[in-house]
Amino acid sequence: MEINIQQVSKYYSDVLALDNVSLDIADGELFFLLGPSGCGKTTLLRCLGGFEQPSQGKILFEGKDVSNVPANQRNSAMVFQGYALWPHLTVWENISFGLEMQKIAKEERVRRITDVLAKVQITDLAKRKPNELSGGQQQRVALARTLVVAPGCLLLDEPLANLDAKLRRDMRLEIRRLCKNSGLTGIYVTHDRQEALSMADRIAIMQAGKICQVGTATEIYRQPQSRFVASFIGESNLLSGKCQTISTGEAVVETACGVFRAGKFPAGLQPGSSVWLSIRPEALHAAGPAPVNRVQVTLQHIDYLGEMADNISVTADGTAIKFFELNPRSTRPEGSSITLEADPDEVVVMLD
Ligand code: ATP
Question: In the list 12, 121, 257, 279, which could disulfide-bond 315, CB 3.0-4.6 Å?
């Protein structure tokens, strides 16, 4: 089901929770809303589900304006963070509830519930009550209950927030598989960047009610357009500088700790502009023979984590530079001097 969000704003009295949000979500896409607490993700999801009305703007499902259609008449189903299962009903009865509301005949109900129990792999739990299930099992019941009514789109509000780290990783794959196998359009709210990076077809990063950037996981991670996006989606060294020259495929930027060649920069960037550079810690490594994008640092602190070392260092002008070393065979002594470099393709110019 294709979804269009057109210039939607939402006020709660004088709080502006959504500020002129527009998004186009394709049929069958698993789309993520990612941002810090209070940025408006849940409000946007609730507007899509019909649990809130936009103050301005329109929401279209398959080209039809549903902005004022009540929740129970929309072709959508929501999975809530707390699961919201009926405690006095069995798993089977919980899943059956929505179908009974829709007056689906018994034979058809039995067929659909049997199918969905198998799909989310909880067939043997059908007779249990929610308080006899683990968190992960309850999550599967909540998913089954929404999938069984065959909605056009699935709205997921931090569905894995109550699970432990290992189960969260397993369920990521599972939810993506379920959405893709059923051809469902999924809109998924989270503030967990790894969940978004590992599961999403596309991600919208939100801040203070606005959409800052929309793109695939690699676009957002590798080519952030602002300091906020660069640092929200991962760790980054942010250096302020001035653009000196631009040639095909490369911008040259002068910063307090040296001159950098950047392979990624916004269209229309002009020489003389004040800019920011983003260089991810994993893009920096001990310098090889090619004299490019070099920066001389002194190591201040090393966190040895086994598969990697997380190093904090400082340049002569006092700029802090973070870099990762993968699979380190030994650690360098703190206070040692090291020359780092980054491939120009890993250096991103941003205007904000
Ligand atoms: P979180 O990750 O913490 O759930 P969120 O990004 O989902 O946050 P929202 O819950 O959409 O954010 O809230 C957006 C803004 O609207 C916040 O400033 C919040 O305080 C405010 N807000 C949300 N619901 C209401 C309400 N019912 N009445 C008044 N203000 C509200």
Answer: 257
Task: Tell me the C-alpha to C-alpha distance, in Å, between residue 30 and each of 21, 33, 177, 202.
Answer: 18, 10, 11, 7
Q: Would you give the distance in Å from CA 103 to the centre of its chain?
A: 37
Domains of the chain (ranges; CATH) run 3-222 (3.40.50.300), 235-350 (2.40.50.140)
- Residue 209 Cα to ligand 1 midpoint, Å, equals 9
CA distance 21 to 220: 18
Q: Is 46 in the pocket of ligand 1 (CB under 6 A)?
A: no
Quick check: 162 pLDDT over 90? Answer: no
Quick one: pLDDT band at residue 290, thresholds 50, 70, 90? low
Label residue 11 exposed, middle or buried (CB < 10 Å: 0-12, 13-18, 19+).
middle
| Residue 289 pLDDT | 66
Contacts of 297-304 spanning 24+ positions with Cβ under 8 A: 297/321, 297/337, 297/338, 297/339, 297/340, 298/335, 298/336, 298/337, 298/338, 299/332, 299/333, 299/334, 299/335, 299/336, 299/337, 299/338, 300/334, 300/335, 301/334, 302/331, 302/332, 302/334, 304/328, 304/331
Give the residue, out of 32, 43, 53, 187, with the most ligand 1 atoms within 8 A of its beta carbon, to mutate for a pocket test: 43
- Beta strands 258-262 and 274-279, pairing class: unpaired
Which residue lies with its CA nearest to atom 15 of ligand 1?
17
Task: Calculate the alpha carbon distances from 237 to 89, 126, 257 in Å.
Answer: 52, 51, 12
Full-model pTM: 0.86
Are 197 and 217 in contact by the 8 Å Cβ rule? The answer is: yes
Model confidence over 59-90: pLDDT tens digits? 999 999 999 899 888 989 998 877 789 999 99
Per residue in 123-146, pLDDT (tens digit) is: 999 999 999 998 888 988 998 998
What CA–CA distances, in Å, run from 38 to 93, 159, 322?
35, 17, 29
In this structure, what are the phi and psi dihedrals at residue 263, rounded to the nearest 5 degrees? -85, -10
